[in-house]
Design goal:
There is one protein chain. The chain has helices spanning 17-23, 29-37, 55-67, and strands spanning 14-16, 45-47, 50-54, 84-86, 92-94. The chain has 99 residues and is α+β, with helices and mostly antiparallel strands. The chain has 2 domains: 14-67; 70-99, no CATH class. The strands form 2 sheets. A 3-stranded antiparallel sheet has the order 1-3-2. It is elongated, with a radius of gyration of 23 Å. This is Transcriptional regulator, AlpA family.
């Protein structure tokens, strides 16, 4: 009498750099390099000189991005024309229209 026991081993899905770039809208190689420098972006696993990202890590990063507060990247002190200002409501307007 033999007992047929099958154990399911969950397999992690890994994506190559090209697949990761396609996942985010066919972004450039440089976009991916910059994301790798971000502290929150998942680090790849390198096997045989090829970078692989764990899909579950990317999905977690995406969820974190959706939950993160939006940060305004525009710096008024360095505006090219110097004629922009922030209104009382937080909007960016031409300086002469701010009251």
């Amino acid at each position: 009498m033999s007992i047929n026991t099958q154990v399911e081993i969950p397999q992690a899905l890994f994506l190559k750099a090209r697949q990761v770039r396609a996942r985010y809208g066919d972004v450039s190689h440089m976009w991916l390099v910059r994301r790798q420098k971000d502290s929150g972006f998942p680090s790849p696993t390198i096997l045989g000189g090829i970078r692989f990202w764990k899909l579950s890590d990317l999905e977690r990063w995406e969820t974190d991005q959706k939950a993160a507060p939006k940060v305004r990247a525009y710096n008024l002190s360095t505006s090219a024309a110097g004629n922009l200002a922030e209104g009382a409501d937080g909007s960016i307007k031409a300086r002469e229209s701010i009251s």
